[in-house]
Amino acid sequence: MAELTGVHPPGEYPVVVVGSGPGGLQTAYALSRLGVEHAIVSQDDSPGGMFRKWPIYQRLLSWTKPDAPYERTEREYEWYDHNSLIADEPELRATVAAEVDRTYMTPSCSEMERGLAAFAERGGIQVRYGCRWESTRKEEDGYVLVTSEGEYRCRAVVFALGVTDPWKSPIPGIEEVPHYAETPAAREFEGKSVLVIGKRNSGFEIADGLEPWARQIFLVSPRPVQTAVLANATVRVRYFEPLEDAAWGGGTFALDAAVERIERTESGGYRLHANGTTRPGPITLEADAAIAATGFRTPLQDLWELGLGTVADGRIPALTPYWESTTLAGVYFAGNTMQGAAGLRKNGIGSASGTVSGFRYNARLLAQEIAKRLGHKQEWQQLGRGDIVPFLLSELRGGPEIWTQKGYLARAVYPDGSTGIVPLAHFLDHCEHGSIAITIEMNQEGEIYPVSYVRAREEIDERQLPPHALNDFGETEYRAALESLL
Amino acid sequence: MANGEDLVDTLRRFNLFADLDRAQLEAIADPDSERSFGAGERILRRGMSGSGFYVILDGEASVTLGGEELNRLRQGDFFGEISTLLDEPLTADVTAETPVRVLEIPGPRLEAFLLSYPKVMLRMLVTEARRLQEVLAWRS
């Protein structure tokens, strides 16, 4: 029965946000700041529902440093706290940093959940909890979301659903294998040999968690672990022990093999048939237990039927640089799903849009973009001509947007002196003559350096500036390089 | 996934990968290497550095220089290798004319990729030779 009272009851809104994780909360906050009327609905009963389930054995992967070169109330501190949502008001900043007990540099799930709840409460973000989105209709000027509480009509919808539906790769016999999401307590694996299908974060999280319990662990997937890429990634903590164990022959195996089929054995275990990829040849092995750590997908429900384009085996929506579906106008995605907009991926380096640290900035831009589409006027920060170079230098030193979203987000200055953060791809394709953008980028060797982009008629002049031993891009040579752009 | 077909099944139909067995195709078919572009969206931009090697999984893309179309790329065609191999900025724009999906091998990984699959490198070389032959025939 439709409940037509309470917070954001079913009805007509310019924008509806679905989801109350970090992506939904950050988008709702940013829409409120811009004065865009919206409803936010969630099937959960409090913020950050995912963190009550996952990661199964461990902490979050991204850091929150309670102490840093900047105060927690300053904007530059955001770079040192990758889990708190961002806000203009000091009391809404660094809410996860306030919760961490300094056991480790990445927060526990409950610390993250409390930090999110504090943000929602202090920010006055009103969510209609317990309201489940069930289906979708496209209408001439927008969408109708059918929920467990009734129908919501809107011009733009933002899905902040996470990438949370267990997904299994199409391997014969995998239906017999429990998914990562169903993994029981580690002690259940005491003395057992365990087959883990998948060699990505969740596979190694399981392996790492089971190292003290299992007798043997076999991690299997076609592609090798990219140790060179991992070397500079926060996720490497999950790979350390199992990979070291594998390298020393201690009972863990990381096998590069395409799985042909999996079958049950008479004793209730599993038998795997595979073909080696890095080292060709057939592989057969048996294990007492098995786990499919084959990943997750976005719970897209019936959006497929409306023609939603996807990537990654249909697991993630394909998005424009402003996180709109490439096929469904007016359908936007926030949160982890924002990784569906790949950006330029220069030198093979992806965006940080799959983590809170990166997508919290995307959410602010997404809100600006939606406000613009709905006809809201926005005020941009204006710079006098003499202020441009000092401002850009300070951004290169500590601008958290470009530092976090390396090579994806850019700081732009337009010929009229206005400045803002934009997706680099959007800047390159849509900026006018005389516009300037700067980014912080990195290469596969882990060097960090600034890059400038200047639009001169149809051409883009891209210039890579040198790295600096202390990442201090405020020095003379950087000043000279930026002055030459003007 | 397009039309229920997985990435391995798409790749196995392309001339470039015709010599690879299923296990090798599975090793290449990393879903995270798949990228998607809406019609009209730019895939590569002239003058830019740091791009990679791309194989069109489906859709059509145009290669343009100063607004003039030089070439049309379709399913199975590849591009981006010249800029990557020579480590030079891109010399033309590539734009999706329809929704386009590509498989991307990032620039820094192309050399290792080609050395791992010499038969792919040979087929790539044959294609490059044909392209050169066409240019020479056009000039003579």
Keywords for this entry:
heterodimer, A: 486 residues, alpha/beta, FAD/NAD(P)-binding domain, six-stranded mixed β-sheet, 21% helix, B: 140 residues, alpha+beta, Jelly Rolls, 8 strands, globular
What does this structure look like?
- The complex is a heterodimer of chains A (486) and B (140).
- Chain A has 486 residues and is α/β, with parallel strands linked by helices.
- The model of chain A has no long low-confidence stretch (mean pLDDT 93).
- Chain A has helices at 22-33, 109-122, 201-210, 227-230, 236-247, 356-373, 388-398, 400-404, 424-430, 476-485; strands at 11-18, 38-41, 133-139, 142-147, 150-159, 165-166, 193-197, 216-221, 252-264, 270-276, 281-287, 289-292, 296-297, 310-311, 316-317, 331-333, 381-382, 409-413, 418-423, 436-442, 448-456, 459-464.
- In chain A, the strands form 5 sheets. In chain A, strands 1, 2, 3, 4, 5 and 16 form a 6-stranded mixed beta sheet that branches.
- In chain A, strand 20 (436-442) and strand 21 form a beta hairpin.
- Chain A folds into 3 domains: 11-164 and 297-373, FAD/NAD(P)-binding domain; 174-294, FAD/NAD(P)-binding domain (3-Layer(bba) Sandwich), CATH 3.50.50.60; 383-485, no CATH class.
- The mean pLDDT of chain B is 91.
- In chain B, strand 4 (61-65) and strand 5 (68-73) form a beta hairpin.
- Chain B is globular, with a radius of gyration of 15 Å.
- Helix content of chain B is 36%, strand content 26%.
- The longest helix of chain B has 22 residues, at 118-139.
- By secondary structure, chain B is α+β, with helices and mostly antiparallel strands.
- In chain B, the strands form 2 sheets. In chain B, strands 1-8-3-6 form a 4-stranded antiparallel beta sheet. In chain B, strands 2-7-4-5 form a 4-stranded antiparallel beta sheet, with no helix packed on it.
- Chain A binds chain B through residues 170, 222-223, 256-258, 275-278, 280, 309-315, 318, 320, 326-327, 340, 342, 344-348, 425, 428-429, 443-444, 458-462, 464, and chain B through 1, 6-7, 21-24, 26-27, 29-32, 34-38, 41-42, 45-52, 66, 89, 99, 101, 104, 106-109.
